[in-house]
């Protein structure tokens, strides 16, 4: 792969970052994941806007202008001849002597790489995924897309240990989100229920588009927190993210959701999302 590091295009083996980088020492870094299908960027404007917001929240200055950032995204697709997959972007505060206080003089480290992946033809669309409920023990600013991903990794491993594909995180009796995706349900009366935006969850770019598409398709939408019990009693459940689009959830803690098959409205939303965004 050809990767991008601070203005240079390099073979991945030649891309080196300091051991004093605050991304490495403090997880003092943010990231974005943008989907690519047919060599085209998906939902770029949304990801770019969220990136700016995350940087503003942490006081990290972007070394590139908005136009330059878009050009780098397009160039990395071209250089790697990426047809389908994702672009990972990470920006850290940079390298400095180890100190909890933010350095005043560090230059941010900007990295982009691509990952080829079949995102359109996901075999899980046909079966749905199983999720296990796991306590949400992440920090309280989940609206900032930081690289502090240890707890989501642990939650995913806990889910895997009971044979589930992913974790749905639960806090104070309500589902927050999946380990790396937004959680949604469709109630027995056909209402799409998804948690409202706050610092409790990442403000999903796919979530926003899918809610818009759902409303236009005539589905009632309620943005509110739901409980694990409501999720178990739901007609359908699904997750959304840049790389999964709309993916059915067919089992929660070993219990089938609805008839245990991917829900018809979920599959319709996936189809509409793909038609709208590709
Ligand atoms: N994850 N919630 C969390 C905790 C996430 O990490 C993600 C994305 C989402 C969905 O956001 P979006 O629709 O903007 O992708 C929700 C990415 C894909 C990842 O970490 O790989």
TrEMBL record:
<protein>
    <recommendedName>
        <fullName>Probable branched-chain-amino-acid aminotransferase</fullName>
        <ecNumber>2.6.1.42</ecNumber>
    </recommendedName>
</protein>
<dbReference type="GO" id="GO:0005829">
    <property type="term" value="C:cytosol"/>
</dbReference>
<keyword id="KW-0663">Pyridoxal phosphate</keyword>
<keyword id="KW-0100">Branched-chain amino acid biosynthesis</keyword>
<comment type="pathway">
    <text>Amino-acid biosynthesis; L-valine biosynthesis; L-valine from pyruvate: step 4/4.</text>
</comment>
<dbReference type="InterPro" id="IPR001544">
    <property type="entry name" value="Aminotrans_IV"/>
</dbReference>
<dbReference type="Pfam" id="PF01063">
    <property type="entry name" value="Aminotran_4"/>
</dbReference>
<comment type="pathway">
    <text>Amino-acid biosynthesis; L-isoleucine biosynthesis; L-isoleucine from 2-oxobutanoate: step 4/4.</text>
</comment>
<keyword id="KW-0028">Amino-acid biosynthesis</keyword>
<dbReference type="GO" id="GO:0009082">
    <property type="term" value="P:branched-chain amino acid biosynthetic process"/>
</dbReference>
<comment type="function">
    <text>Acts on leucine, isoleucine and valine.</text>
</comment>
<dbReference type="GO" id="GO:0004084">
    <property type="term" value="F:branched-chain-amino-acid transaminase activity"/>
</dbReference>
<dbReference type="GO" id="GO:0008652">
    <property type="term" value="P:amino acid biosynthetic process"/>
</dbReference>
<dbReference type="InterPro" id="IPR036038">
    <property type="entry name" value="Aminotransferase-like"/>
</dbReference>
<dbReference type="InterPro" id="IPR050571">
    <property type="entry name" value="Class-IV_PLP-Dep_Aminotrnsfr"/>
</dbReference>
<dbReference type="InterPro" id="IPR043132">
    <property type="entry name" value="BCAT-like_C"/>
</dbReference>
<keyword id="KW-0808">Transferase</keyword>
<dbReference type="InterPro" id="IPR043131">
    <property type="entry name" value="BCAT-like_N"/>
</dbReference>
<comment type="similarity">
    <text>Belongs to the class-IV pyridoxal-phosphate-dependent aminotransferase family.</text>
</comment>
<keyword id="KW-0032">Aminotransferase</keyword>
């Amino acid at each position: 792969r050809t990767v991008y590091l601070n203005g240079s295009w390099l073979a991945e083996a030649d891309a080196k970052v300091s051991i004093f980088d605050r991304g490495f020492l403090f997880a003092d870094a943010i990231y974005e994941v943008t989907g690519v299908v047919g060599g085209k960027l998906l939902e770029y404007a949304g990801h770019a806007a969220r990136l700016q917001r995350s940087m503003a929240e942490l006081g990290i200055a972007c070394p590139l202008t908005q136009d330059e950032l878009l050009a780098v995204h397009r160039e990395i697709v071209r250089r790697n001849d990426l047809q389908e997959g994702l672009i990972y972007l990470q920006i850290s505060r940079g390298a400095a002597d180890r100190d909890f206080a933010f350095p005043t003089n560090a230059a941010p480290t900007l990295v982009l790489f691509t990952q080829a992946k079949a995102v359109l033809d996901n075999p899980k669309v046909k079966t749905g995924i199983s999720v296990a409920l796991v306590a949400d023990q992440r920090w309280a600013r989940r609206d900032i897309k930081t690289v502090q991903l240890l707890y989501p990794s642990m939650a995913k491993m806990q889910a895997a240990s009971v044979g589930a594909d992913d974790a749905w995180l639960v806090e104070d009796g309500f589902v927050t989100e999946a380990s790396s995706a937004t959680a949604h349900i469709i109630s027995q009366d056909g209402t799409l229920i998804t948690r409202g935006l706050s610092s409790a969850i990442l403000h999903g770019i796919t979530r926003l588009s899918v809610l818009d598409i759902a409303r236009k398709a005539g589905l009632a939408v309620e943005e509110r927190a739901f409980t694990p019990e409501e999720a178990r009693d739901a007609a359908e459940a699904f997750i959304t993210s840049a790389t999964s689009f709309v993916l059915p959830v067919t089992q929660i803690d070993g219990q089938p959701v609805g008839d245990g098959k991917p829900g018809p409205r979920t599959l319709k939303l996936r189809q509409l999302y793909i038609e709208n965004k590709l």
